Amino acid sequence: MESTMNNTKVQPVDEVKDPVERENKQLNPPQMKLIIGGLVVTAVLMVYLMVNFHAMQPLLLIIGLGLGYTLFHARFGFTSAFRRVMSVGNGQALRSHMVMLAAAVTLFAPILAFGVSFFDTGVSGYVAPLGVSLIVGAFMFGVGMQLGGGCASGTLYAVGGGRTVMFITLLFFIVGSTIGAYHLPFWTEELPSFQPVSLATTTGLGYGGAWLLSIALFGLIAWITLVVEKKKRVPKMAPVPTTSGWKRILRGSWPLFAAAIVLAILNALTLMTRGAPWGVTSAFALWGSKVADFIGFDVASWGYWSGESAQVLQASIFADSTTVLNFGVIIGAFLASAAGGLFKFSKINGKNVMASVIGGLLLGYGARLAFGCNIGAYFGGIASFSLHGYIWGILALAGTFVALYLRPLFGLSVPKSKDTFC
After folding, report:
1. What is the 8-class DSSP label of residue 198?
2. Which segments of 49-199 are extended strands (E)?
3. Which is nearest to 331 in space by CA: 77, 120, 71, 93?
4. Band of the pLDDT at 26, cuts 50, 70, 90?
5. Where does the chain cross the membrane (predicted)?
């Protein structure tokens, strides 16, 4: 398929393909040694969490495993979904986002309204301020995920699937998030900012009215993508190798819409378990800050770690619920890839490395400024009826559009959306 930014006409036979699809026309046998190893690691970590921490930590590990398994098996992406829409007009993956968000707001509304939780910790959604930091951060994140090859969740499950270059993205994601934590007080206190806006509580609509408005918005967005596809002969998404029957649950690809509902359910379970929705990048800031503290930086003096956050910095990373979820996602994706016989380390080249470095830094820094990533701000924010989640999505799409001009400089494809791990 040949396409440029000025002429997006494509041949009708073209498809948007996944690199795994091109290399594996059929499923490989399960990689049993890797599966056993992954299960052993899971069991050891589970026992450690059960013995040393609150009961919610092992439960969150199980939820994280489910998230990682689902993300990998469905190749459920945010980066590729945004890129496909902006480059060739394919909105299939974006429509799956709308299904996910519709299911999420349906589940979140009663949980938030009635304070439903498993451990009586109280529940609250992700409702963040509106300001310069959100605008700049979300735009940076949109550029970063197109250069780095993945978003927050995508970086984790690509690492779990053995995609080598994503280890570099993850490393600099952590670095960028740590720098962003250090700079965050400037962005939030020195630059213009407005109070958070909740469609449910701030506007007076209530959770019922906010739910109706949200469903209407999701339907409108899905309808727009269908109109665009009807007017343009867009490339189709190629099917991922799979199997049939019950084996498909463990080894084959999952339909995007089915995965969307599963992710919404798991996010709702996360909300009821720890009192907050699924998040990813706050753990990156924690990991990086601990390393910075170890090598001599006065991290405790940073505004980001003031107040109650100081206890998080001093405690074990395994006491951090987001860290446990992240480890679960990586292990879950690893088990899913091994079950499908797909785990292997991929090749990297100099241009990919440079893109991953730059993309990772933008991802980490942008996530801190924007009060979250594609999971915490976009998925969790919109599911929590926060206006900042919608603004995040718009600015991330704008960043994606700009990144379409930058990707070819690093040897990254634009129209064929080869980078579909996220």
Report:
1. B
2. 130-131, 193-194
3. 71
4. low
5. 34-53, 59-78, 99-119, 165-184, 204-228, 249-269, 324-343, 355-379, 385-406
pLDDT digits (tens, 9 = 90+) for 29-53: 899 999 999 999 999 999 999 999 9
Locate tokens 């993309």: which residue? Answer: 359
Q: Which residues pair with 193 in a beta bridge?
A: 131
Distance CA 44, CA 168 (A): 27
Tokens at 218, concatenated: 């999701």
Q: How far apart are CA 73 and CA 251, in angstroms?
A: 8
Q: Rounded to whole angstroms, how far apart are CA atoms 22 and 8?
A: 23
Q: What is the DSSP letter of 131?
A: E
Strand partners of residue 131: 193
What gap in Å lies between CA 402 and CA 416, rounded to an integer? 17
Spatial separation of the C-alpha atoms in residues 399 and 137, rounded to whole Å: 10
Q: What are the structural domain ranges in the chain?
A: 20-410
Eight-state DSSP code of residue 319? G
* Rounded CA separation 12/5 (Å): 18
15-16 vs 236-237, strand pairing mode: parallel
**Token pair of 214 as six digits:** 């949200």
CB atoms within 10 A of CB 243: 15
State if pTM tops 0.85: yes
Instruction: Give the span between the Cα atoms of 280 and 372, in whole angstroms.
Output: 8
